[in-house]
What we know:
2 copies of one chain form a homodimer.
Chain A: E1 2-7, H1 11-23, E2 27-33, H2 36-42, E3 51-55, H3 63-73, E4 78-83, H4 88-97, E5 101-104, H5 109-120, H6 128-137, H7 150-160, H8 165-172, H9 176-190, H10 195-203
Parallel strand pairs in A: 1-2, 1-3, 3-4, 4-5
Helix pairs in contact in A: 4-6, 7-9, 7-10, 8-9
Chain A binds a DNA duplex through residues 149-152, 164-166, 174-178, 180-185, 187, 193-195.
Amino acid sequence: MKNIAIIEDDIELRELLDKYLSHQNEFSCKISVDSIEDFFEVLSEENKPDIILSDIGLPGKQGDESLRAIKEKLPEAEIVMLTVHDDPEKIFKCLQGGASGYLLKNSPLEEIKKYLSILADGGSPMSPRIARKVIEYFRPKQKLEKPLTEREYDIVVGLVEGLSYKMIADKYNISIDTVRQHIRNVYRKLNVNSKAEVITKKLRGEI
Amino acid sequence: MKNIAIIEDDIELRELLDKYLSHQNEFSCKISVDSIEDFFEVLSEENKPDIILSDIGLPGKQGDESLRAIKEKLPEAEIVMLTVHDDPEKIFKCLQGGASGYLLKNSPLEEIKKYLSILADGGSPMSPRIARKVIEYFRPKQKLEKPLTEREYDIVVGLVEGLSYKMIADKYNISIDTVRQHIRNVYRKLNVNSKAEVITKKLRGEI
DNA sequence: AATACAATCGCATAAAAATGCTATGAAAAT
DNA sequence: ATTTTCATAGCATTTTTATGCGATTGTATT
């Protein structure tokens, strides 16, 4: 029996969720409020939620700020963001901020229920649409006009690992001047002029 | 009607999948091979797959290398990795490499079918367990014993953006020596000694 | 045969980064 | 009241990076 908290300022949606979830045997819903502030107000030892359903775009606070606040008070709780948007950027931020999942507000109630069951079970609810977005987020956005060669790719990996030119040269048994040459070429292809930019691009999946 | 290709060296599993999927109305299975090499061998205009189910740990090639190879020949195809492991690091690599999804080999056949249907529909199959792993991957792993101050955080962001010390100094209207000082402190707290490592840590959610 | 590109190496130089040491004022904590 | 932390700053030195120019070899393509 998992205790759910709902933080959502659309009263209609909130009451719908509250009513629906309270009706299920697996869930109870002891907190149902319309803002983060109210949530902390109402929160007590007796009604600590296991799972928190929270609107991402609540007025006042930014989504990821409130996330951090909740995580700090209730590190054990699973947080699921409710949203109408499915902007990958936002999804990413929320997941980084500590959300365990992400649900579109227009999802059917049965789906929401199913998701919460999975969550209680240690999985993370993620609808296929959203999963696709998340995957797209850290996938190479577009092919480079000038793709990197294998060697150049090796060198990029070395840079990401924090190796110096010298260390990369040793790792691949080539001269440091060769490393320089490859890096020159990488910079030209990526249109950058520093290690930092290469690393950032690589880790953001742009290479 | 989607055409599936199966690349999997466990003959039993491969034939099971082949038989099962061919039986479904929505799918055909024109290619069923046990290595990437064979796959390219057999591939022709007539049997181009829409979806490729591929073992991640095929002998010979690394998972992500073969991914790249497939993506190059068949950029339109959806690739789903088959695996027994659910190592988040590997999952991440594959998704970065162009996989659209990721299935555990011991998944029930009905589940696999359902996933493939979703994939054909533009979503990305991701089991809750794996979704959880992926989410965990880009979530702050643990709080730093020595957390960064606001200013230090600013400087880190500057580094990630590819700014030089000089540019960071200008951005925040401080001296370049102050930037140096902050960076020194950041290095100490993170236990590193280069920009590269800071950027990597930041983008991997370790800060 | 000619062209293109990948991988290799060298030398030189300017710019940037890493590090050692020191220091001051303000704010926060003890 | 004293200590700690944060943000600020300067100076000097070594190491690393960024970049310009030139060059050879092998492989693949045309």
